[in-house]
Amino acid sequence: INPACPKTVKSSGLIWQTTAAKIIPEIEKMLAKDCTVFKIKIGRQSLREDIELFRQIIRLPLAPNSIVLDGNRCWEQEQLKQFVGQVDPNYILYFEEPLRDLGLYAKIDLLDSIRFAVDESFFEQKYSVLTTADNNEVFVQAQDVVFLAIKPQIFSAIAQELASVADEARVPLVISIMAGVSIYQLEAAFPRLPVIRAMPNTPATVGAGVTAVSGGAYIQPKHQETAREIFAAVGEVVEVSESLMDAVTGLSGSGPAYVALMVEALADGGVASGLPRPIAQQLALETVLGTAKLLKESKLHPAELKDRVTSPGGTTIAGIAQLEKNSFRSALIEAVKAATARSQELGK
Question: Mean pLDDT, consecutive 10-residue segments, the chain of 348 residues?
């Protein structure tokens, strides 16, 4: 739902046009069709107008956790705090990229993180987790591992900020999940410290990720074991040489977006062929999940599974012919290569 300008939006299987004047009636129509989650653009208007719009929307008979707020990095932290302080957050499922700066998450899981945005002592009170905006303090007080979970574009600035404490620090292990930042760069920033470069991916949020790790010159077996133990908690772990980490980024790091695009396209194809969108979405998603599980458990080569599904003169070969005609295979190969090249650029 985009209250600022006419735009085609997909929500629970519907595609429709809306403006600010029509937004409430459109939501009412969607509620009548059993839609349950609504995505709303924020930041295109003033903060006051966004707050008032949200208040009007929640007067409708909405369930808790039914609104996704898409901010596209429109706000500063202070604006987010103002918004949260003046609306009922129980209706919000999560924010997508609300903040302009890089200090918070790209996707904020609502209730805990919203409370953190309002009160930085929240995590300490609920989870006994200390939070601070002082990177030097984190580095000096770390007992086991320091994670570098920042954008690669600001690594140089952070490294300079930490230069005064890096030489004296007794950090057992530094683990970086930054794309494109090499072990050489990490070891230059943190001399003589054991460094591991890791590339997890977003399915880690549901325990189904895969993380590639590569160690630096000062790594010992205990450090590798620590890293494996950490990342094994959220999926599979593979060890690769440093020279392959950019390729890992291009494949498994960026890969979930490629797969999501493929699922969306499969569902769109189903809709174009007459299926209701919720059913098309379910069929597409379960097909990808099931195929991945079958390939993993059977250890079949993908080409072998493809051949088993493809019968002479049948439906599958007709579909595959169109994929090949439209360079599906080549497009995926080039996507991985382009993402790999971009990872290399980020490290320069």
Answer: 34 40 77 77 79 85 78 70 78 67 42 52 70 78 85 86 72 87 91 92 92 95 94 95 94 95 96 95 96 96 96 96 96 97 84
Query: How far is the C-alpha of 320 from the C-alpha of 310, rounded, in Å?
Result: 9
CA distances in angstroms from 163 to 7, 71, 152, 166, 179, listed in the order given: 48, 34, 17, 5, 21
| CATH superfamily placement of domain 9-124 | Enolase-like C-terminal domain (3.20.20.120)
pTM attached to this predicted model: 0.64
For the beta carbon of residue 194, count every other beta carbon within 10 angstroms: 23
Amino acid at 253: G
Domain boundaries 255-346, corresponding CATH code: 1.10.3730.10
Rounded to whole angstroms, the Cα distance separating 198 from 245 reads 8
What fold, for 135-243? Rossmann fold (3.40.50)
Q: Is the dihedral of CA 114, 117, 121, 123 positive or negative?
A: positive
